[in-house]
Design brief:
binds iron/sulfur cluster, electron transport, two-stranded antiparallel ribbon, alpha+beta, Fe-S_cluster_ET, 4 strands, metal-binding, Alpha-Beta Plaits, iron-sulfur
């Protein structure tokens, strides 16, 4: 599984960080950082994060 966040859309509201903290986090500059190839076990949390994102910036690519 791969994920991609369109950082041009992201407004760092961090809903994804609350939904899937093992995948998404904010760095010291309050910029979003994320694991682009997370474990499959994180899928439910990532789907929740994608739903929660207010600007729909999270894209999932299941393979
Ligand atoms: S929820 Fe969306 S806008 Fe907020 S930090 Fe995550 S990707 Fe960015």
């Amino acid at each position: 599984m791969r994920i991609r966040v369109d950082l041009s859309l992201c407004q760092t509201h961090a809903q994804c960080v609350f939904a899937a903290p093992e995948v998404f986090s904010l760095n010291d500059d309050d910029e979003l950082v994320y694991d682009a190839t997370p474990a499959d076990a994180s899928l439910p949390a990532i789907e929740e994060a994608a739903r929660a994102c207010p600007v729909q910036a999270i894209f999932l690519d299941e393979d």
